[in-house]
Structure formats: C-alpha cells, structure tokens
Amino acid sequence: MKLTVMGTDEYGTEAYEELFRRILADMGKSRAIDEARMVLRPEDPAFIYSVRMRSRPERLTMKDVAEIREEGGEVQLRISDERYAPSILSKLWSTYGRDSVDQRTRFEMTIKGANVEDLKKTEVVSGQKVRNEMIDALWRTLPEGMKSRYHLSGPRTVTILASENILRPELKEEASILHKEMEGEGDV
Amino acid sequence: MYEVMMFDGGVYRSDEMLDLIEDIGGSVVQKSQMAQTMLITMAVPAEDAPAVKELARELGGEMKSVPLAGTEIAVVGPSLGRHHMPHPICDIAEQLRQYGAITVVMGLARGRGKETSQISADEKTIINEYDAAIFVLGNFKKCVEEKKHLFDDITVPVILISGPMPEGLDEDCEGIVCGVGRKSERMRRAEEIDKLVEIADMTAEIVSDRRVELGEDPIFVHPAEVKQRLEEMEAVRESLRPAPIVLHLDGIRVKIPYNENREELEGLVVFGRPLGEVARITPSRISDSSTLIRIMTRSEVEYRDSL
Q: Is 3.40.50 the CATH number for A2-57+127-187?
C-alpha cells in the first residue's frame, strides 16, 4: 500500500499515518488497498482521506467461489476459494439450516434439499458490502468528533471528507479534485 | 499512623497473615486471589509493619510498596467510542491498579471534537468524587489545547495524557505526560510500558503531595479505621459488590444506598464520636447505590465543637 500523508500538525501527522496502517491491518483491509492519500488539517478542522482499491469490488455468487454438482439426490459443494469459506458456510446455514449442511472436510460439504441452479445463483459477497466495509474502516481511522461527512465513491476509489463545521464548497471541491486524481491515476 | 502495603504470596497459610492484620488492629483494603496467588492490600499501624514483613518472609511471600493504595482514581476519555477505548485508557487504568489504586474508567458524553467538546456539571461532580482524574486526549496539539475547558471546575488533581506536548496548560493541570495519544492496540512495547510507568509514577507523586497537604491539617480519623466500623454493618456485609468499601485520601466510598442507611451511618461510633459529627455523608452522584463519606479535619471538628 502506497500511503501519502499531508498534514499541518507534525506529531499528529506521524501518529495518524501509523494509526491508519494499524487499523487497516487489524481489519484485514491493507492488502485490498493500492494507494491512499490523507490530508489532515486539525486547525480547520478538515480531514480528507482518499483510498484506491486494488480491484473493483464485485458481487460474487456461489458459482464463482465453489464447485457444485448433484449426486444421488444430494448437492455436493467444494469450496474453491478458501477466503470465502466462512461466508459460504454461514450463507448455507442460514438458507438450508444447520441440519441440512453436512461438512465432511474443511472444503467439502453435502447439502440436503437444495436446488443446484438456485444454489449457483446465491450471492456470497456483494460488491456494496466490500465498499461499505472499506468506508467503515476509513471512518474508524478518522478523528471521532468529525461528524460532518461527505463521501465520493468511484469504481475503485472512495474519498471521505470530514469536519466539525459546515462543509464549505471549497472543501468539497478539494475532496473532489483529490478523488479525481486518485481515480485518474488508477486508470492509467 | 497507618502504613499501606501489599502482600504478594501464595494462598497457603495466607489466613495467618489475615489473622495478624486483625490482631494488630489493621485493616484489609483489598484481597484478591488468582489461582495459587494471593494479593492482600492492607493498612496496618506503622509500628507493627515490621511484624507483618517478618511474617510475609516466613510465608515465602513479599511485601510490596503500593504508592497509590487507599486511593480511587478516575481515568477519563473524551468518549467511550472505539476511537478512544479500550486503548490507551484501559492500559493506564490497569497500570494504576498495579500501583494499588482502585480505578474507574469514564467516558464523557460529549467530550470528542475540537470545537464541540463539552463536559456537563454532572460529569464534573462525579470526577470530583475521586482522588485524582487522568484525562486522556488525542494526537493533535491544537485539539488538546482547545480542550482545556474540560478541566475547569475540577477540584481534584488533574493529570493530562496526550500525544504532543501542549502549550499553555501548565496552570490547568497538575501534571502532563505526552507521547501517548490515540492508540489502536495494547501498549505492550518497551517504550510504551515505560510511558505507563511514567504516568503511574507521576500520579503517585501528585497523590503523595496531596497526602502531605492533608497532613498539615490531618483528618479526624484515618479512613481505614472508619472502614473497620463500616464492615460491621449488615448492609455492607450483604453487599454483593466486589469492593463494597473503597478508601479515599480523605474519606470512603461505601457502596450501600444513602437513603436507606443514612441514620445508621451517621450513628456509627468512631473514637467515641458519632460519624455524622466528624464526617460529611452524602449520596454519590454516580448512582443511588453508593454513599460518600468525607472525613472532616481535626481543626474543623474542633471549630464545630466550639460553636
């Protein structure tokens, strides 16, 4: 992750850079970020965070992350992407009930009473959820009192402007320029 | 004069230590047992302290100095939100516990923000019930400086913990420790542990100064002696709170309802005087289930007697 921090407070700038890295690492989002830029102006106060993700958050269905086949009246499922195993399992449990899902090994399971076509279409991860998680991670890194917030969202880029005061047009403009810069560089 | 110290040893034969404390007229401030370890914080007459130390040596334990024993300290953060809790506020509170203090963690309802931070009169009154207050603020110098109004009207010693060193706050608080700020994880690195020790040492120093100040016009009776009388009360014996009696520098917090026990508390005889004559007994502002006892100074009692 490439991180650029521009701040007016020497101690705070350094501390927030460290804090940003640690919080994102705790939330498991560091690897998802390609580049991040932060503008910290506590005297205004105004904080602008812009983050470009490595890949566009996409909606994934069961078909994308598991191999599904029907065998002897039961549906056999094999998880092909381990990262989504918890989401797959909780989705199956909530849809068919725990009694109908027999997990034989870490990646293999048998589901009773399921329809293959319906199961293939079941959504495992929604793109919006990934985006929301990223915004949540950014909010955590922002100072707490900044309750006026404005956010811009592109295919891969999320920008947040936060302040305690009314969000003046010039601040929004600044956030918008940063957002475009980040988006533009991502397309190159 | 009482000396407060802590026995750190095993559970085996620890009842002998408890018996000795009782025999010499001392008092157990706090007792905690963790597996085979027994920690007993006690207040014993200074002249009998060598006997206690001798027994501790015989039992294979050790006596530790607990500079903050007999105090209750509030660690205050701008909010209870995840931005400030649990680190570093809880880390500081835990360090103070190791120094013998009873600590509480408090988050202000509207303490966050540079221009919008507030503290209510109720919050100030609650903070003033403790022996000292530690305010833990953030990373931006300007924000920390702007929040000095949070300490207005706080009558107990205030220690400020912040990231950068703020300017112009020397008059508003008794001590400042910088280099902490907002944290997202436990303070466990060597330099962070040093910082925690620095905070606890500064608190101990400020509390010690306050003790000296109180010694100039001593309180009528040591809180440990009042504690012994309180322990005889049925309401205290029946209290299920982990520490029903908490010592303060100049009094006691007893966790029983004020309204139901006022008369009995005022009538407790200490040194031949009813407690109501030598102490101010008031309900705590935290909740109805706690009562504060502030012991008057000797000169105050004499003055009231002369009227």
A: no
- Is the pLDDT at A30 greater than 70? The verdict is yes
DSSP state letter for B297: B
What fold, for B2-65?
Answer: Alpha-Beta Plaits (3.30.70)
Question: How far is C-alpha A20 from the geometric centre of its chain's CA atoms?
Answer: 15
Q: Map out the domains of chain A as residue ranges.
A: 2-57+127-187, 60-125
DSSP state for residue B81 in the 8-state scheme: S
Size of interface A-B (CB pairs under 8 A): 70
Q: Rounded CA gap, A179 and B11, in Å?
A: 64
For residue B23, count other CB atoms closer than 10 A to its CB: 10
Domain layout of chain B by residue ranges: 2-65, 72-214, 223-306
> At the top level of CATH, which class does the domain B72-214 belong to?
alpha beta
In this predicted model, what pLDDT tens digit does every residue of B150-190 receive, in sequence order?
998 999 999 999 999 999 888 889 999 999 988 888 999 99
Tokens 């910290």 locate to A40
pTM value is: 0.83
Kindly list the residues of chain A whose beta carbon comes within 8 Å of any beta carbon in chain B: 9-12, 15-16, 19, 22-23, 26, 40, 42-43, 45, 140, 143-147, 164-165
Among chain B, residues having any CB pair with chain A shorter than 8 Å are: 78-79, 81-84, 112-117, 138-143, 163-164, 181-185
Which of chain B's residues have a Cβ under 8 Å away from the Cβ of A41?
none
Residue contact B112–A9, C-beta within 8 A: no
